[in-house]
Structures are given as C-alpha cells and as structure tokens.
Amino acid sequence: MVSDAVTRSNNNPSDPRNRTVVHPVDDIYSANLETPINSSGWTKAYLNNLPAYRKGISVFRRGVEAGIAHGSWIIFPFIALGPLRDTPSANIAGLASGIGLLVISAFTIFLYAASNPPAPTLTLTTPRPPEEFKTSAGWIKYGNGFLIGGVASAVASYFVLQTFW
User: Fold this and answer.
1) Tens of pLDDT, residues 105-143
2) Could you tell me the CA-to-CA distances from 99 to 50, 107, 130, 146 in Å, in that order?
3) Of 75, 72, 52, which is closest to residue 125 (Cα–Cα)?
4) Three-state SS for 33?
5) Domain of 123: which CATH number?
6) DSSP secondary-structure letter at 133?
7) Number of structural domains, the chain?
8) Which domain, by its residues, includes 91?
9) 3-class SS at 23?
C-alpha cells in the first residue's frame, strides 16, 4: 500500500520531491553530483579543453601552458601593490617577487609528486583524466614545465612592461 503511494508520487510533477535538480552521478556518498551547471555541454567542453585535461598533449606541455598562464600576470600585483611600487626599481622587484612565487609554486608541485599522489578521480565533468597524473614522474614533468613556462612568461611580461609602459 505504502509502496504504491511512493510509486505514484514519482510521476506526480506537483510533488516537491520531483523538483530536485541535483542528482548523484553514481554513488550518493561519492560527492560527485550532477547539477545543471556541471552537466551542461558548455561546461564539459570548457573544462576538457583546459591544459590539465586536453587530449593529445604531453604532460610537460600541460605544465608549460599552465605556467605561461600564471607567469604572464603574476608580476603585476607585485609591481602595483608591492612595497617598492613608487620607485624606479618597482618592475625588477615585481619580476623577482613573481619568479619567487613561481618557484615556490613549482616546489609545492614537486612536494605533491613526492607524496605518492592518488590517481585522479573520475568525475562527471572530467571523465578521462590524463594517465600521466597517476604517477609521481608525471607530476614532476608537469612541475618542470610549469616552472619553465612561468618564469619565461614572467620575464616576457617584464620586457613588455619595460618597453611599453
């Protein structure tokens, strides 16, 4: 009797229990939830086109692309807001501070690689994480690429700033 009432309520659109938009993907306890945002095609396409998840590129190139993205802007907060912001040496101090932050960031990637990281979690938005991130060697290659790309783009940003500002 009670199970019949529950079955009938599943098809009733006015029942508030049928208005939820968040559903577990597989196991309710895995914290992998399907929402209208993360299950949209646009979100999946965007996330799977980021360097961390794009198919067909090496792990070193993934690191270089992420490093370029960070290194190209990281010096500007130090130049504009640092303690030497109103001095002639603000740009070089910002470059040095930015490179220092990139080195610290790469060091944390290397520490993570040394900690024997677990394999990436398969989620709704990233169903095929790269195989390279399952090993410490892959994370070390990623960190090397991040450091090289970050420092190179920070230096390039410094020269663009010196030339045009």
Assistant:
1) 999 999 999 999 998 888 888 888 888 999 999 999 999
2) 23, 12, 28, 12
3) 52
4) strand
5) 1.20.1240.10
6) G
7) 1
8) 2-164
9) strand
